[in-house]
TrEMBL record:
Keywords carried by this UniProt record: Cell outer membrane, Ion transport, Iron, Iron transport, Membrane, Receptor, Signal, TonB box, Transmembrane, Transmembrane beta strand, Transport
Every TonB-dependent receptor-like beta-barrel domain range: 313-751
Protein family per UniProt: Belongs to the TonB-dependent receptor family.
Membrane topology classification: Multi-pass membrane protein
Record-annotated TonB-dependent receptor plug domain positions: 117-222
Name of protein: Outer membrane receptor protein
Keyword Hydrolase annotated: no
One Pfam family named in its UniProt record: TonB_dep_Rec_b-barrel
Length: 799
């Protein structure tokens, strides 16, 4: 008993001694004295470590007595190892030297805005993305950024998702990855479902609202999203990231990297799988992806190869829920055929160079290739054989012209080209100029197959009932620069030329010949100024022009009677003030976006009965955006944003199908000064962060979206109701001995179980009135409901 008591006492003394031992200090830039937030500080051999806070401070507790190597590393700086002895009562002050190895920050420099660029933008760091990333697509992770409305077909953020910024949909938002265009060349959209778990390979993003600065690819007509993928990791690592949650949602991600080998080479890899049953009936998703990157890092040059791919299989939930079923059968899905699925794979290859030519010049260039292929399969009940250019089937002397059919509609496309930028900075650093541009080609095949018929006919399974090809060449060059005219006053100019050649050949899916070609040449100037006050505030104002060609469907569905769609034009004014201090930060921005010939759905039909878009002469968006954050204390931070806007079409003509008369026709109704569809007048977010103890964070995330119309008639019967949702996030990190870092995250979405719909569509028609007298207007609304209270939980371990 004495030995046991002595042993326990000794253990208690050791425990108390260990608990009282700690080290703390600061990390800063050796040349500038800037405090370095986010620096990794590791006590080798113990599994204990820390990361510097916003003030560059770190602290490591509960250290046994002894002598250790303290390893301090930060991207772009030379790793430093110090010998320390514990206990140590003195603060450790560490100064890191900038690395002689050239960093990757210039990869996206050509298409990004800087602190003195007079436009409206927001930078999003890897740490901010990681806090929300439990497997949902990028649009859902951006839901709390200014003027953003996100939505999901399946209702839970996995599968087909999308977003609107300032009311502009995905086809009007330019997206680049490492400066390389990601928008589909034909539809101008970005299908995030083809990039599952891509957020796990993103280092940072910049969202520019409005026209922004010149970029590559599709025209920016509402905003641009500029993404930079993972940058070099100096230390070898392994990472396992798993999450699970409602609707049988699962995400499994494995990452690994070699660190810097021989002070020159680094390789990284990620493998992911995401599955979900979806909130909507049968809205399942099975998503797979990988990301591979490797590079050579010299003192003045970086060569890097990225290869990434995504494959998706999703059950179609495209039709939405009819208004009549919204209260009684909220998860209704029209499709019941067991293989009513969308199947697509997209492979990306990027070879990137960035380097320092001399003291004044830097260069960036990239070659890229994307291969996409896939189909969606549909069961068509009692379909017309004439829709497939097939004659009636004769059985027992009976002519059968309609029957059940299963079809597949295919895409098989190649997208390739190159982008570049040259950056010049004068010796006195007053002039910062970029010459950039790109040349890209899209070559896409569209074709359809019948894979099953109710009654046999002389049709083979790979016969194509339609087949057409489209080739699109896109080229652009821009010259932009910032000049410091006097202390604090920066002048900005940006001139871009963009040319588009587009040709079509073959039969469309409605069996019309769509052969033809069209060309456009656009000039997009941008000017502005920024003034930085002595107190650190920035005032800015700019004027920018963007021009945009119609999408593929506008061409293939035309002519509307005898006229083809015209290109769209946007003139954008931005003005605002920004401030950033250690206690608070804010940005107040005013904008005016004037559209000429904006293309919208009107209800008008082409010669085979398909609904087409038409140009409306004048429309605009105008508003004020406020975003900011305030640190009440080290424990409490409040942040948020508010956008109040007015979005109007001067004159709009609606075409309504009329089935009430003996002969079908369309009635025209003209409206003036109506709201643009899917453009809420108020969008707001509010986030409260509370850190009760070290490494534990509780966040309340609120989102408000005002009411919005589903078409341009401003009819209250065709409206999405306003909604306010609240999410809860819990995040806890620790550093056990067996791993470098372990992080637990719990997201409870929609904690108050709000029933809401951020997306939908509508159409109307006239039918004969009761008893055959007169006519009645019938409006059908369809909605895409989001899930009630649901959750995702995840654990991430880094080795």
């Amino acid at each position: 008993m004495k030995q046991l008591g002595f042993t326990l006492a000794l253990l208690l003394v050791c425990f108390v001694a260990t608990a009282q031992n700690k080290i703390n200090g600061t990390v800063k830039d050796a040349s500038t004295g800037e405090l370095l937030a986010g620096t990794n500080v590791l006590l080798e051999g113990t599994g204990r470590g820390s990361t510097t806070d916003i003030s560059g401070n770190f602290e490591i507790r509960n250290i046994p007595q002894g002598t250790y190597d303290l390893r301090v590393s930060f991207l772009g700086y030379t790793t430093q190892t110090l010998k320390i002895t514990v206990p140590n009562t003195e603060e450790i002050n560490i100064s890191l030297e900038q690395s002689s190895i050239f960093t990757e920050e210039f990869v996206v420099n050509g298409t990004r805005a800087s602190d003195v660029t007079p436009t409206t933008f927001q930078n999003i760091k890897k740490e901010e993305i990681a806090k929300l990333n439990l497997g949902q697509d990028i649009p859902m992770l951006l839901n709390y950024t200014p003027s953003v409305v996100s939505f999901s077909d399946a209702g839970a953020g996995v599968g087909y998702t999308g977003l609107r910024i300032r009311g502009s949909d995905q086809t009007r938002i330019n997206v680049t990855v490492n400066g390389i265009p990601m928008n589909d060349a034909e539809s101008h959209g970005v299908f995030w479902v083809n990039m599952p778990d891509f957020a796990s390979s993103v280092d940072n993003m910049q969202i520019q609202r409005g026209v922004g600065t010149s970029t590559n690819g599709a025209a920016t007509f509402g905003a641009s999203i500029n993404i930079q993928t993972d940058t070099r990791q100096d230390e070898a690592y392994g990472e396992i990231d798993n999450s699970f949650g409602s609707f049988n949602t699962r995400r499994h991600t494995v990452k690994a990297g070699t660190g810097l080998l021989n002070n020159r080479w680094a390789f990284d890899a990620r493998l992911s799988q995401i599955t979900s049953d979806g909130y909507m009936d049968r809205a399942s998703s099975n998503l797979k992806s990988y990301f591979l990157t490797g590079g050579y890092y010299g003192e003045n040059h970086v060569f890097k190869l990225n290869v990434f791919s995504g494959a998706e299989k999703t059950y179609q939930a495209w039709e939405g829920v009819p208004e009549a079923l919204l209260e009684t059968n909220r998860t209704f899905n029209l499709y019941t055929y067991d293989n009513q699925t969308d199947n697509y794979q997209q492979d990306h290859y990027q070879f990137i160079y960035t380097g320092k030519i001399n003291q004044n010049w830097k260069a960036n260039g990239a070659l890229h290739y994307t291969y996409g292929r896939g189909y969606y399969e549909q069961f068509r009940e009692n379909d017309r054989l004439s829709s497939y250019d097939l004659s009636p089937v004769i059985i027992g002397g009976e002519s059968i012209s309609r029957m059940d059919i299963i079809r597949r509609r295919w895409l098989d496309n190649d997208f390739f080209g190159g982008v570049f930028s040259l950056n010049y900075i004068s010796n006195d650093a007053r002039l910062d100029a970029v010459l950039g541009g790109g040349i890209n080609r899209y070559d896409g095949d569209h074709f359809g197959e019948i894979i099953w018929m109710q009654y046999a006919d002389n049709v083979n399974i790979r016969d194509r009932y339609y087949d057409n090809n489209a080739v699109k060449d896109d080229r652009n060059v821009y010259l932009k620069g910032t000049y410091e005219a006097s202390e604090g006053l920066f002048l900005f100019g940006d001139l871009q030329y963009r040319g588009v050649d587009y040709r079509f050949d073959g039969l469309n899916n409605d069996l019309r010949n769509v052969s033809g070609n069209v060309s456009y040449n656009f000039f997009n100037p941008k000017f502005g100024l920024t003034y930085q006050t002595s107190s650190g505030n920035s005032l800015y104002a700019s004027y920018a022009v963007a021009n945009r060609e119609p999408v593929r469907r506008d061409f293939t569905d035309s002519p509307i009677v005898d006229r083809a769609p015209q290109a769209e034009n946007l003139q954008n004014i931005e003005a605002g003030i920004k401030a950033n201090t250690s206690k608070y930060a804010y940005n107040v921005n005013f904008y005016y976006m004037n559209y000429n010939n904006q293309l919208v759905l009107t209800g008008q039909l082409n010669d085979v009965g398909a609904y087409v878009r038409d140009n409306v002469a004048n429309s605009y968006r105008a508003g004020i955006e406020i975003d900011g954050a305030y640190n009440f204390s080290p424990q409490f931070t409040f942040g948020g944003n508010l956008a109040i806007s007015r979005n109007k079409i001067s004159e709009f003509t609606e075409y309504i199908d009329d089935y009430s008369a003996a002969e079908f026709f369309q009635e025209e109704i003209t409206y003036t000064d109506t709201d643009i569809a899917f453009s809420p007048n108020v969008v707001a977010s509010a986030i409260l962060d509370y850190k009760p103890i070290k490494n534990f964070e509780i966040s309340l995330l609120n989102k408000y979206v005002g009411s919005q119309y589903m078409d341009n008639t401003m009819n209250d019967n065709r409206m999405l109701d306003a909604f306010w949702t609240t999410d809860l996030r819990l995040n806890y990190a620790l550093r056990p001995r067996f791993v470098k870092n372990m992080e637990f995250t719990l997201m409870v979405y929609n904690i108050f179980n709000k029933l809401y719909e951020p997306n939908g569509y509508t159409f109307s028609y006239f039918l004969p009135g009761e008893g055959g007298a007169g006519r009645e207007l019938t409006t059908e609304n369809f909605y895409y409901p989001m899930a009630g209270t649901n959750f995702l939980a995840g654990v991430k371990m880094r080795f």
